[in-house]
Amino acid sequence: MRRAFLFPGQGAQVVGMGADIAKASAEANEIFEKADEIVGFKLNNICFEGPAEQLSSTTISQPAIFVTSAAILEVLRKNQATNVLRADITAGLSLGEYTALYAAGVISFEDALTLVKKRGEAMQAAADATEGAMVSIIGLDEEKVQWLCEDASEGELLVPVNFNCPGQIVVSGSKAACKRAKELSAKYGAIKAVRLEVAGAFHTDMMSSAAEILKKALANCEIADPTDTKVIANITGQYYKSAEEIHQGLTKQLTSPILWQKCMERLLADGVEEFYEIGPGRVLTGLMKRISRKTQVINISNLQTLNEISRQFV
What we know:
Layout: E1 2-7, H1 19-24, H2 26-39, H3 43-49, H4 52-55, H5 58-78, E2 89-92, H6 96-103, H7 109-128, E3 132-138, H8 142-153, E4 158-165, E5 168-174, H9 175-184, E6 192-195, H10 208-219, E7 230-231, H11 243-253, H12 260-269, E8 272-278, H13 283-291, E9 297-300, H14 303-313
Parallel strand pairs: 1-2, 1-8, 2-7, 8-9
Antiparallel strand pairs: 3-5, 3-6, 4-5
Helix pairs in contact: 2-5, 3-5, 5-6, 5-7, 6-7, 7-10, 8-9, 10-11
């Protein structure tokens, strides 16, 4: 039976995440303490206590989600009951791709967290320098979302960037164009359109300055070729074959659409039967319900779910 580990991206953060696990597990607590040393501030305090506004900022939420996911993964690896769990394939949504690469053993915790921190800072800087936004369109197929973007753009940037699951596509671009898309969405039959609480137009050309910074940062990191565990790339829905492809994929990811539905459909087609979402929240679990109704995702996001999965393997 083939197994995949899935890791969430930005938006999964919630105040208190990881606190119960760090309190109960020395291994998890060690990951948070190590993270504090790498980032140079008390990231664990923000994860555990907030405030929510600070945790949700791009510069904080990205390392916070990565570290919380890594801490849960560490407990799974070190727990005598669950250390038999091994992933054949890992996948992560946008930011989560860094956790997927770490989980697959192709990048160290230190390098991955350093990259994630720089990524968050670079994306925030790019957002501050532009006037961008994102809107989630619910209930339309790809063709109608494309028509909506063409109608609402009025010469400004507006493109579909997150193909999450059937009936959920996120568009990204200028603030004015996103506002028009939200207003015009009902005309195309959308059930609803929701403005996302993000700093800017992620996964578009508005992030090109961030991509340049990330490219330089990647050059200073040691990334190995994937071997035993495969990692699927967000922007292609194909498996990474080399370290060079990973460098290119992570750089292009900032200015390219995220093909999450395509990635999950590829895993299903390749015979993956067991899926585990590891990290805060249940976003990926919810998306899979829309992608494949018969496929169950085992969610491991807190101490309770960790204990439940541990009892299954005793």
